[in-house]
Amino acid sequence: MSFTNKKCAVFDLDGTLIDTITDLRNACEAVMNNHGFKAEYTDDDYKRFVGNGIRKLVDRAFRESLDAETLDLYLSEFLEYYSAHSLDNTRPYSGISEQLKLLKERGIKMCVITNKAEPAAVNIIEKLFGEGVFDLIVGQRDGLPTKPAPDGVRLALKELGFTPDEALYFGDSNVDMQTAINAGVDAVGVLWGFRSYGELSQYKPACLINNPDEISGLFK
C-alpha cells in the first residue's frame, strides 16, 4: 500500500521510533524501591502503563493510589532518575534510522509528537539520531494538551505548512490512533511497539505495518 499526496510523516516516539521500556521501568522501580514498594510488574505491564505521559505512568505504577502531593514528589524523583539514565538501554528500533534517511532524501518532512517532556524528548532524539533529522519535535509543554488531544499535531502541521490530508501519523498505541483521528490525519499503526494488533485495529487505521522497513514505501 502507498498513499498519494503525503508530504509529512508524523511520528510518535516511545514504542514507534525507539524502545524505551527498560529505562522507563528502571526509573519507576527506583522510585518504588525508595519508598518501600515491591516492584512486581513485567515489561508487558509497563507497555500498558505508558502512552499518557510520565505523570500517568508513575500514577499507574503506584496503582493510582497516591494523593496529588505525593504523586508530585514521586514524579520529581522519577524525572531526576530518568534524566540521568534515559539512554542506558534505549535504542531505535532496527531499521528506523535507515527509513528516516530515505524519507529525508525524498524530501518528506518529519516531526515527532510525544507526551514525553519536550527537553527530554529533544535530548534523546538528538543523541540517538543526531541533530536536524526531524523538522520539528513537539513534546509535553505547559499549556499544550497532551495526546490524544490533537493540539500537538495541529501545531506541527501548521508550523510546517501542511494540511492534515498531506500527513501520515505513525504510532503504536490506542492513544496514537485516537490522536490521529482527532487531528484528521491518516493513521498508520505500527506493530513492533508496545501494544497489540487487536488494540490498534479497533480504531480502523489507514493501515497496519509489521516492520519499520515498510515506512518509506507508504509515500508514493
Structure, explained:
Helix 6 links the parallel strand 4 (109-117) and strand 5 (136-140). The model has no long low-confidence stretch (mean pLDDT 96). With 220 residues, the protein is of the alpha/beta class. Strands 5-4-1-6-7-8 form a 6-stranded parallel beta sheet, with helices on both faces. The protein has a two-stranded antiparallel sheet with strand order 2-3. Helix 1 (21-34) packs across helix 4 (68-85). It is built from 9 helices and 8 strands.
Structure summary:
The protein has helices spanning 21-34, 43-49, 54-61, 68-85, 96-105, 118-129, 151-160, 174-183, 197-201, and strands at 8-11, 18-19, 91-92, 109-117, 136-140, 167-171, 186-190, 207-209. By secondary structure, it is of the alpha/beta class.
Q: What are the main properties of this structure?
A:
220 residues; alpha/beta; six-stranded parallel beta sheet; two-stranded antiparallel ribbon; 16% strand
User: What coarse outline follows from CA principal-axis ratios?
Assistant: globular
The major sheet is characterized as: 6 strands, parallel
Q: How much beta, percentage-wise?
A: 15-25%
With strands numbered from the N-terminus, the spatial order across the biggest sheet is 5-4-1-6-7-8
Query: Counting H and I runs of at least 4 residues, what is the number of helices?
Result: 9
List unreliable stretches of 5+ residues: none
Overall mean confidence score, pLDDT: 96
Q: Mind sketching the topology for me?
A:
Elements: E1 8-11, E2 18-19, H1 21-34, H2 43-49, H3 54-61, H4 68-85, E3 91-92, H5 96-105, E4 109-117, H6 118-129, E5 136-140, H7 151-160, E6 167-171, H8 174-183, E7 186-190, H9 197-201, E8 207-209
Parallel strand pairs: 1-4, 1-6, 4-5, 6-7, 7-8
Antiparallel strand pairs: 2-3
Helix pairs in contact: 1-4, 3-4
